[in-house]
Every structure is written in C-alpha cells, then in structure tokens.
Design a protein that fits this description.
Elements (H helix, E strand, L loop, with lengths): L1 H19 L22 H19 L10 H20 L7 E2 L8 E2 L2 H10 L19 H24 L2 H18 L2 H17 L2 H9 L2 E3 L7 E3 H19 L5 H24 L15 H13 L24 H19 L1
Antiparallel strand pairs: 1-2, 3-4
Helix pairs in contact: 1-2, 1-5, 1-11, 5-6, 6-7, 7-8, 7-12, 9-10
Length: 350
Amino acid sequence: MAFIEDVLDAHIIGAGMQHFGMETIESTPSRVPLPEEFQCWGEKAQTDWLLHQADAVLNSLLPPTDMEDSDFGSLQITLESQDNLRLAIDEMKTGDGTYKCNQTDCSKHYRREGNLKRHLRSVHNWVTDIPHPQESSRKATAQVIKGSFVKQALIARDTWDAYKMGDGDRAIRNAKFEMLYASAAGHWKYRQWLFRMLAYEKAILTPRHAFEYKWNISANLQGQAHASIPGDNLVELQVGSIKRKLQSQGANVTFSSAQTAAKTTQVVDMVKNNLSRENASRKKGTSRHQVDKSADVHKLCHELMHSDYFTSNNHLPEFTNMSDTLCNIDARKLDVFMCEQKKALAGIHC
C-alpha cells in the first residue's frame, strides 16, 4: 500500500506540473500562473479557483471514456432490467408453483420458469437474457493504464482514510465501487463480504443498528485524530494479547485459565494505560516513525515527466491484453451472484 500511495502521489504531482506548465517542482507555473490579484480575493473566491484547477488536474488523470461496457450507467440499466423482468415473472407465478402467462390474449401454463422465459422470448419478443460480454476492442494506451490505476488507487486511499477517521459514510459508499472492482478482478470472497456488508447496512438491520454498524467500523486506541484502526485489526490485537498471556503460562495453561485470560486481558490493558497516563510515561509501540517519502515521490515524478507519460497516448505493445478494469465486469455473472446472495440472505433472516 505504501508503494501504491507513492506512485499515486507522483501521478498527482506530475499531472499538476503538466497542467500548470512546470518543468520541475521548484519552477514557476507558466501555463496557468497564479493571478496577481489572488491575495486580494476573498476566501471563497480563492477556494473556487483552487478547486477549479484541482478538477482540471483530476480530469487529465481520468479522461472520459467512450466505452459503454465500462460505464456505470449502462451496467445499472442492465441490472435494473433484469430485476424488473424477475418481478414480472414472479407476478405470473400461481399458488401451486406453476407459471401462467398474463400477456394479452395469452393464458398458457408452464411448470418451469425456463419454459416461460422461452415462451416470452419467442412469442412476445421479450428480452430475458443479458447478452454475453464482447471483448473490448480498445487497445492498451497510456491513458487507459493511467486512468485505470488512478481510479483504483484513489478509492483505496479514500477507503483507508475513512477507516482512520472513523467515517462510516465514506466506507459504505466506497464499498459499492470496491464490490464492482472485486467482481471484475475475480476476488469472489471479497465481493461476497462487501455485498453482505452493504445488505446489512441498507436492508437487514434496523436503522439504529445500521447506524451503529456503520460508525463502529474502526476504533481509536491512541486518542488522536486520524489514528483509528479497523475493527478486524482490533480483534487481531486482542487475540495476540491473549495468546501471549497463555504462552507465558507454559504447561500450566488450562481451559479455566484461558477463559480467565480472555475475560481479563482487556481490563488489565486498561489499568496499565491509566497508570501510564497518570505517571506521564511513554507507551511503547503506539505509533510508527513517519518516513519522509518526498525523495522517492520526486524520483517517480521525474521519470513520469521525462517519459511523456502525461502527454502521449501511444499504444503499448507490452500490455496488449490490458484494458480498464471496469471493462472486465461480466453483467451476467454479477446478476446471478446478486440473486443467489439475496436468496441466501432471505433464507437466513426471514
């Protein structure tokens, strides 16, 4: 993650230098200079100007795509059409488990859902299946690779920042995009976990419990801003503390002593922290030394600027099979996955 953050910083700085017309980080902007009356502007006017420049830099990193299969809107329309089709077929289901066509001048009965779909396709010209995805005809270019990396890196940075700040809204919002990326990359377990995370927060839990679930995604052990850790890491720390306690008992460990250690470890840690705070003693291992990465980022940015990475859009024969990650989303498999998960959750919680 540290290397990805360094490369992302190099992309952002390099795109900013290209936008402002700067040959080096220390040089003065020549293409978009700072207005002479900038210092006389109000705070809102200064902020609007800076945000406008930031949008221009971001648009240069994420160029608009002309590929329909990588558009979130087309994917949403495809999945919504399948949901509407599923609701229409459920309305045709009778009490005895069979299906009756409810179209005009048609009342045929079918025992299986597949036979009903075949009838709707051939007789009533319904579109009941998602077409197979076509292989992307767009060749790998510098803009495609740059845009694909920056989109995923920005989402990863924003998610990690949300966990450190304890921002449940951002974590839930980013989970929607991460589920699509996990589906495109074939991370099935991670996709299932993200889907169930969204399902619990949006549909299964009560509003009160959903609020608690969303805002308890991380915990702060140091009492500082931007220092929270995910709940999973907190559990790992607690388990590690219990293991060390049991290992210190050696051959004398029993089920009863393990149970006592599990119940008292957190209390003992709280007492130790209170004593350390009262005596103003420094606690070991609470934070890591911040490493200065400016030299590494500067070298990465220098390489990107001198390779015409931000200006050229040449085809890259070394990456002929590479395309935007979102182009690899199979809407058919995603629809089947979501239906199976909905049925599984309905069977568990109904």
